[in-house]
Amino acid sequence: MLYPDTVESEVLVHKPWFVAVMFAAIFALFLTFDLSGTSMGELMRPVIGEPLESGIYGRFAIAFVIAVLFCLNVVLIGFASLRVQITIVWLELLLLFLAFFKTFNLSLPFMAEKLPFLVTQGLFTTIYVSAISIVIASAIAILGAVAKLSTNGFAYAIASFYTSFFRGLPLLMQVYLIYLGLPQLGFIIDAVPAGILALSLCYGAYMTEIFRSGIQSIDRGQWEASRSIGFGFGITMRKIILPQALPVIIPPTGNQFISMLKDSSLVSVIGVWELMFLARTLGQKSFQHMEMLISAAMLYWGVSICLELIQSRIERHYARSKVR
Description:
Elements (H helix, E strand, L loop, with lengths): L15 H16 L7 H5 L1 H4 L6 H23 L4 H21 L5 H42 L3 H16 L2 H11 L9 H26 L3 H9 L4 H31 L11 H12 L2 H30 L6
InterPro entries: AA_ABC_transptr_permease_3TM (IPR010065), ArtM/GltK/GlnP/TcyL/YhdX-like (IPR043429), MetI-like (IPR000515), MetI-like_sf (IPR035906)
Subcellular location: Cell inner membrane; Cell membrane
Membrane topology: Multi-pass membrane protein
């Protein structure tokens, strides 16, 4: 978040012009949809009569009520503190998602039966593949960043070619090239190592640029001062440059890890029993695709939230020097 504003001003959602614009936008949006055949139409039955026969009057009344409720909700939330606002909005959005999922008529017993296997086999494999890949990608990124910042032409050429090539190809193509291409050269590689190698090389290329930009964000005087008192290259990077660059590097690196967690689903095409592969396979047997896909989606989301919280704590740790 931005620094707290010390200038007192009226809350935006309490300004009449903003409420009017918001009401008009919501009203116009829902007026374009015919919601008379939904549960909202049934709730409005005392006002509009038979929902399916209410015509334009029913659509107008439903859109008007939704716009009023939406604006009233936003205005009331605006009186609460920041943390309370965030909590309420999260809960409301979560309830909307649950209501949306309810429309699929999901088989909850089937989901409960398959969930343990999804977690113990699929989720474990997904986290395992992603964790090893991010460690290898980070090591590659550090080497690549140092090479791109060096004055050695060979090192810079190799690093720039690597980042250009692996950022220029789709990840799925890289998975296929490694898993299907290497055996033609005599290197037989299993599905899991092939997936880890593809993820590591692909994300290592992106993270190389993250590390490079983080290192370059440190003032050149830091480097010159360190070298002037006799510190070697390794000590300068390890003790002076990288500790200052980490606050810049950590946020995008955390985003890359979360993105890798989801992109690991691409290794399912080569038969890795990760979360997406199992969700698709288990759903095909009984044609209950939505149950398994939604279960996998919730597991992906849950792990992503955990990673976001960990990333947030690490960011706060490294930002302590900037707190006033």
